[in-house]
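Standup notes, structure subgroup. Blocker cleared on the tetrahydrodeoxyuridine input:
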Amino acid sequence: MTEQTQIDWDALREVALDAMGRAYAPYSNFPVGVAALVDDGRIIAGCNVENASYGIGLCAECALVSTLHMTGGGKLVAFTCVDGHGGALMPCGRCRQLLYEHSAPGMLLQTVSGIRTIDEVLPDAFGPRTLVDFAE
Ligand code: THU
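Run returned:
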């Protein structure tokens, strides 16, 4: 697992804040920005993008995982999420699942209750390994 001390959480948070400022959230007025460190050192970001058809709005994490693949793939090592006031925000349940799919082992998240691992915020997760185990 990547050492917690190697992660520049302040730098990651700055990127998330910038992304939050680009959010399109006219319906909820709840802009969200996320940023993540990838296992090759890249930093990627995303913001939420809502829609007049409310239910199809995209969480910021959707943009993040799309950007992950659009910019070279890899696994997520560290992640942060901020709300419109710049406070730490817990990813919603669906987005924890999205993040889990692309997580490096021991991925760290900056949360409302401190630094947590992906396994702590999504215990006993259903994921790619579950499907492989079933096929075996
Ligand atoms: N939202 C995110 O972008 N990520 C989350 O993890 C939580 C919720 C967005 C969705 C919606 O645009 C707004 O926050 C209010 O729910």
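Discussed briefly. The chain has five helices and five strands.
Next: hand off to the docking folks.
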